Amino acid sequence: MLFKFWCLEQKRAFKVFSKTIKYFLSGIVLLMAGVLICSHIFGKQMALKQIDTAVVIPEDGEELKLLTNFASSMQSVKSICHFSYMSEDEALERIKEGRIQAALVFPEHFYRDVDMGRKTSVKLYLPEEMTTELTAFSELLEDGISMLWTAEAGVFSVLKQAGVEKTVVPQGSIGNEMAEQYVKQMFCRSDLFESEVCSPFGIYGQSAYYCSTGMLFFLLAAGLTFFPLYRKRERAVVNKLTLYGITGRTFMWVRIVVMTNILMLTACLYFGAGCILTYALDMDLLFWDKWILPGLYLLCLVFAAFYHVIYAVTGDSFTGILVLMAVELIIAAGSGIFIPLSYLPEWMSQAGKWLPLHQWNMYNMNLLFGTCSLKNIMEMIGWLAVAATIGTVICKRD
């Protein structure tokens, strides 16, 4: 009788899901559009804004202007600052007005002084209030100057040693060779610095993050279609089922399993489509692995238990769908599903780490793109136990 009852409930759930699938798909399209917009907007905010920099060059500084044009055409420089040439007075006036953020003033005969080994200096004007972009710009400029000082010291030390040893190679050739070697080292910055990427999307990157949250959006939207399962049954039907040993606790688990199966179908379709797109577009995103399926079923089981608690607590199918929608929006916004936690206020970011949807998303990303540890599995089982306990306490309402 239990198996027959489960089959009837499963058939009923699929029938309800098929009737409401158009609303489900419409909601998914709107949610995914919102996710893509958020991803685009906040992804752009990861980069520092360009610094509008004035460059003041004396009239006889043609060589210096060639060097600054060469530097400004480099991608690493263009991503940080934008050069414009003007007089010193005009540059200072624009800094006061806030139209530019920095000014580099080169003295007369700067190129000749550097070429002859004479000491010279460049003035850097910055506003009193430093933004994050200006701080990064000034630090990078200091690093560049430090490299030039190191190169200059290296060239002169080699020339001095060559003079002591009385080498037959002309000093001009030695100086040019040493300067070229130092310039190569400065341009190959990857050999000088360690690379460490700090991303608000975690170790898996932006694509993996929103691929995982996309699946969660599908599961959240699917949960809104289960409200007909919680409509009040006639008393005679309930008494008849009780005679066959189908109690409130049995009702609970049958409904959870029924919802889990539909959620699993949704998750498998999403995962399968992702694998096909990965193969078709030659991307490095989702790949087929049979061990992912049991992990997805556990995820869907936790979601189904969560839906049962909401619908069972409200005691009414229409009220339940409204409460579920409100709860989903709140925990989705606070869990970093719409916007990564790094962009949220500090108090919200710290609280969001303890919300269930955030931990479920971490489990899903580890399952799809990394290694799902025993700790992740036990956390999901813990959430399932909590939901099942709450559901058991209130199952007498059914």
Number of strands: 4
Q: Helical amount among residues, as a percent range? A: 55-70%
Topology as a string of helices (H) and strands (E): HHEHHEHEHEHHHHHHHHHH
Strand content: under 5%
Q: Note the total helix count.
A: 16
Strand order in space, largest sheet: 2-1-3-4
User: pLDDT average, as an integer?
Assistant: 75
Low-pLDDT runs of 5+ residues are none
Radius of gyration: 32 Å
Coarse morphology: elongated
**Cα end-to-end separation:** 18 Å
Question: Mind describing the biggest β-sheet?
Answer: 4 strands, mixed
Structural class: mainly alpha
Task: Give the gist of this structure.
The protein is mainly alpha-helical and 398 residues long. The chain has helices spanning 2-19, 21-44, 62-72, 75-78, 88-97, 110-116, 132-165, 171-187, 205-223, 235-243, 248-280, 292-314, 317-334, 346-352, 356-369, 374-394, and strands at residues 51-56, 81-85, 102-105, 123-125.
